[in-house]
Design brief:
alpha+beta; five-stranded mixed beta sheet; 40% helix
Length: 250
């Protein structure tokens, strides 16, 4: 009697799901995570090879999740359904991170502000400029998007930032923008915008505390030098009343 051919891939998806349910995601390699995600947008096809191609093209699981839909669809087998699913996972994660910070939370160190901004910019593949608005106790009033695109004199409306700060009754502002896929290193434009925003806010009696640049995995406060900071607190005269002396103790 002829031996029956056994399909090694039979019930593979169920085995992967069971593995996840029993052991969680920690025992999965990045390509296996992608393979399982793609189960839900690519029916009845082997998604393992697609997952490997995605990792090869974008370098990491994070790189895949942060890729734009057009780039994702350049990979063989990846259609719009899969691109939407991957983008949705990224954006849900970003929303969850931001939802942990509520209006009224106190940000008395640069570390807390930086961690919030890492979550705020997470998953964005384009540059964005925002302002964090605080009261005089460094409680967050709101984080407001100012512009999308590279930061320069043309993209950032200094008067708008001042108007937003006044309308929200903010006493302190932190300006921030991201360098997606790049390093958190200030450019000449970054420094010029810092000075212009600081001047516009000072006219209406609002303090610009910092301009923070956010890279892929890190952030940089660019105004530390203004306070002659060497792992010690800036002088009280230069910080708003509600900001603790240990603001720059990272």
């Amino acid at each position: 009697m002829a031996k029956e051919n056994i399909n090694p891939h039979k019930n593979h998806r169920e085995r992967v799901k069971t593995k996840y349910l029993n052991h969680g995601l920690d025992c999965f390699a990045d390509h296996e995570v992608l393979e399982m995600i793609l189960f839900y947008s690519v029916p009845q096809k082997d998604t393992n090879e697609m997952a490997h191609e995605l990792i090869d093209k974008f370098g990491s699981l994070r790189g895949v999740l942060e890729a734009n839909p057009d780039e994702l669809c350049e990979v063989s087998g990846i259609k719009s359904h899969s691109a939407v699913l991957l983008g949705l996972i990224r954006d849900i994660n970003r929303r969850c991170i931001l939802s942990e910070v509520r209006s009224g939370d106190t940000f008395n160190t640069v570390s807390k502000i930086g961690e919030y901004l890492l979550g705020y910019f997470s998953g964005l593949t384009h540059e964005r400029v925002c302002v964090m608005l605080f009261d005089n106790s460094m409680k967050l009033i709101e984080c407001v998007k100012v512009a999308d695109g590279s930061i320069n004199g043309a993209s950032v409306d200094y008067r708008l930032i001042a108007q937003i700060a006044l309308s929200k009754k903010a006493s302190t502002v932190v300006l921030a923008h991201n360098h997606p896929g790049g390093l958190a290193i200030p450019s000449r434009d970054d420094r010029e915008v810092t000075r212009a925003v600081e001047a516009a806010l000072s006219v209406v009696g609002v303090h610009l505390l910092e301009h923070i640049i956010v890279g892929t995995t890190n952030f940089l406060p660019t105004m530390i030098g203004k306070y002659s900071y060497v792992r010690s607190a800036p002088c009280d005269m230069q910080l708003p009343e509600g900001c603790e002396k240990g603001f720059y103790d990272i």
